[in-house]
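Both lines are given unchanged directly below:

***
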Amino acid sequence: MQFDYVIVGAGSAGCVLANRLTENPNTRVCLIEAGPPDNSLFIRVPAGIILLMRSNSRNWRYYTVPQKALNNRQIYIPRGKTLGGSSAVNAMCYTRGHPWDYDHWAELGNDGWGYQDVLPIFKRSEHYEPGENAFHGTHGRLNVAELRFRHPVSEGFVRAGVQAGYPGTDDFNNDVQEGVGLYKVNQKDGERCGVARAYLHPALERPNLTIMTDTLAHRIRFQGKRATGVEVEHKGERQTLEAGEVLLCGGSINSPQLLKLSGVGAGAELAGHGIDQVHELPGVGENLQDHPDVLVVHRNLKKDTLTLSPWELPTNGLKGVWDFFYRRNGQLTSNVAEAGGFIKSRPEEPIPDLQLHLTAAKLDNHGLNWTFSIGHGYSGHVCILRPKSRGSITLRDANPRSPALIDPRFLEHPDDMEGMVRGVKAMRGIMAQEALAPWRGTEIFPGEQVQSDEQIRGFLREKCDNIYHPVGTCKMGNDDQAVVDADLKVHGLEGLRVVDASIMPTLIGGNTNAPTVMIAEKAADKILGLAP
């Protein structure tokens, strides 16, 4: 089976590339995905994220190694395993980060990746329902919409943020970002509009596109220093897909793992697993960054939030089903994390250093603790935006079915711990405002007994988690830890690019899905010769 391009991974980046590269009917593209098609009702229904968090078929359900700074806890890392990747299972928040993030990439030596370079690509990729302006476009494939349903407590949270002294905003994607408000979401007509729906579905009938689901990549094949194809397992059979160019879009966990399984990485690690080295590239799997996150949780006096109570689900659930299927509104159109903001933890911060999400439900351990979510409450997420801790992805063994060893080293840098302490205090300050008084019951986490900085640090060691934004493990740059150049070509090799969030040299200050779409759009321009 011979193709011009083999794309490994049908996530947010892979779907974009599959669409863009097959616009030329003479270009043959094969897109492979380890998971099944995106034909689940729970993907279409926005609130289905609650069940997708637990899915065994459409979620990789990774765990970290024990985290030293978090009482040696193993942290759950959900990642999408279906067409659309994590855009099929995420909370659909459309944010891009701060302009500084991209200018910083350019300052690190990545020409063409500054904010003014990437803003036109963001605008080109979106259909922004509120209307075109200096920061948004209306002719792109990725639909960005207003929420069709807002829990009252979400709107109360925004008012409380303003009462706490933070500016209100209706757009987190302008040139200042700062403020509290309601998130715009990747939805269309009340349904999820992930990247598969936006980019891949319109290309499904193109005869020059081959899509292989339930197909696991085993290794990239090389002749000398040139990638020539991908060895895969499909329906129990091994086969090789020959390619003029291999485009690796597996994400920040799977892309470095596949490179190492293919002999690209640090020689000592590869030799320890009996893998013949093709190319020495010590940065593969290094530089892992993710947003640490923690919850401030209150009981709800008004009992108008989401609950898994078996006594209330029959009534509320039936109404939600009716509203969704007959009106395309109601609670099932909620992205669950409706409100939030980007704020400064202290006045001297030049740009926002904290992100907030408000979930209209009691949550613990990603909602995996079902019994905790019985009863009414609301949960305030807070994360630091630019953590200094750096982790790694390493091989467990040479078996492509074995999950990699994921070590983000959450909060190991002391500045990250102190930033999270300030974040908890900021969230508590918002939660204490008059606007939330009608809902405010007792504080469950951290709890009234936790007041001093040292007590908050202890709470963080016990409860700090993550908010699903791993990046950086195949970073773009020119230093000795860089894996790809500014064209996303792997250093020292031919016929191989990495196109996904792993190429980010530093973590952007926000959710990472929209930036991943931008990265893939920019890569397509490079591949097609439409950009210098």
Observations:
- The chain has a mean pLDDT of 96.
- Residues 2-40+196-287+471-527 form a domain with the FAD/NAD(P)-binding domain fold (CATH 3.50.50.60).
- The two ends are 31 Å apart (CA to CA).
- DSSP finds 13 helices and 24 strands in the chain.
